[in-house]
Amino acid sequence: MGIVEAILLTVITAATPLVLAAIGELVTERSGVLNLGVEGMMIMGAALAFAATQVTGSPYIGILAGIVCGALFSLLFGFLTLTLVANQVATGLALTILGLGISGQIGEPYVGMSGIKLQPIVIPVLADIPFIGPLLFRQDLIFYISIALIIGVHWFLFHSRAGLKLRAIGDSHGSAHALGIHVIRTRYLAVMFGGACAGLAGAQLSLVYTPQWVENMSAGRGWIALALVVFASWRPGRVLAGGYLFGAVSISQLHAQALGIGIPSQFLSALPYAATIVVLILISHNRRVTLINTPASLGKPFVPDR
Amino acid sequence: MKKLILALATSAAVLGFAAAAAAEDKTKICFIYVGSKTDGGWTQAHDLGRQALQEKFGDKIETPFLESVPEGPDAERAIERMARSGCALIFTTSFGFMDATVKIAAKFPDVKFEHATGFKSSDNLATYNSRFYEGRYIQGQIAAKMSQKGVAGYIASFPIPEVVMGINAFMHGAQSVNPDFKVKVIWANTWFDPGKEADAAKALIDQGVDILTQHTDTTAPMQVATERGIKAFGQASDMIKAGPETQLTAIVDTWGAYYIKRTQAVLDGTWTSGQIWDGLKDGILTMAPYTNMPDDVKKMAEETEAKIKSGELHPFTGPIKKQDGSDWLKDGEKADDGTLLGMNFYIAGVDDKLPQ
User: Is B323 in the A-facing interface, judged by CB distances under 8 Å?
Assistant: First the structure.
């Protein structure tokens, strides 16, 4: 295996949780709901996935536990902001703090344990293609799901009636409501989809990236995913590109350090953030297109007049 | 928001603690932790020390603690409530509690304070630290013996004297066995991020190192080393569970020995302040069992450890040149503590540019 291939494999592992959490949040935000609790849902998913894997011995049950846990945890956010119309920003922040606390409790018996790593699924024939075979077709289930989700969400948002309705709600919940679309019900589903994706991203952390449980192991990846959604101007393809760009620059800077090329490490550590922001701003420079893609009702409370 | 909730949580914890403590007449030895007591790293090591202390003195003392106390104004409040509640001795176990501890120590001259890893002391405020570099020197020697390629990877956290000192000690230990030994350094710029630590480990291994050591807190690098089939050193606690076939040894923080010594001094009325910097011989750090290595390497490591303990060997003994080629220590000269505690340069042979 060449060094380029080795680097790319590391990049894929580093980018997958960002892409997963971001694509979920993208759907949530497209419906007009801003959930800042991604970090909290992610860490809950990581804790539950690890615990379920340890108890049952199967990482696939762990994945399921992560997804379900993320979705249920986001339901709490949904109830507070959609039914009780609480402030979305404050509730999202509280969800993150709550998630970090509860996951620490859940994970306490598992600190220091060696985890069970999710094994790759080799796709016959395709896996034997030189270079791209080992990169793309000898991966774990969560990677395949992340790519499928990007394609699926793109199709859903821009080529399906249900997606059109969801975008309509995000742009003007008043008009959508007047047209007879179920605003609150759709938003509940969008919030839960975001939670499930964040939970799956968490499962990737504790089953693939670093198969272990340590408190606060998401270490800010939820916040990076949130930023990716905005800088990708709510487009699934750009979320994928942004996530992989961030991963690629993060890993490259580590290699640059190990080579000892003498650039200050503080600068190199900041590079992934700077590079991703610059590139995503450049590709979204068309203000009209950006404006069209921004959900106009984002973060605004909706109370249906009865 | 986060600050507010933490503040509320801290106040609630402090109130509960004060109420419970009112009726007792045992000597109170109190602890302030920056993290959770099950963080698997720094704070857990301190809490194990506290448990060893409690076990040693049994009914004579009690050892209340506050965990996850944020550094800053909240720390000051937490320490003050501890002091008011009748603690005889308070250990504040994070560098960032320094100024808060200094302030409260001045307010309560009858209470004794000890601050970990800091440098500000007074009549009733001592500082304590561990000579981790002694263990790093031994690790360097083992690395030079065990490495086929003569290159080790070093995952560092932040360019502070403590960490730079560790890299130099590791390098000097390795050079004492193989003068051409190389160390590749990656600065993760974090103490704690399993993902990033794993990425750094992968990058180092992809670039050809076959021994890994770390100055960050999680077992992620140990796991990567296991996956890739190379050897590694544990950090802060015995990480053998994460790499039964991988770990050569680990530097284990064993604060308990120190806590017992200082508590005994308080009970005897002989406690004095000072800037205490204990090492292997005092038991404040210990080496995890030497595993996964041939007997001759193990023997060498044990001999070095014994020599350091007896004072026969100081890891930083000249001749040592700085990275820029200038002389640091003359033949036979030993480094003084002041220089070590403020170390901001590499010794010759480190293959990295020190971030300033």
Answer: no
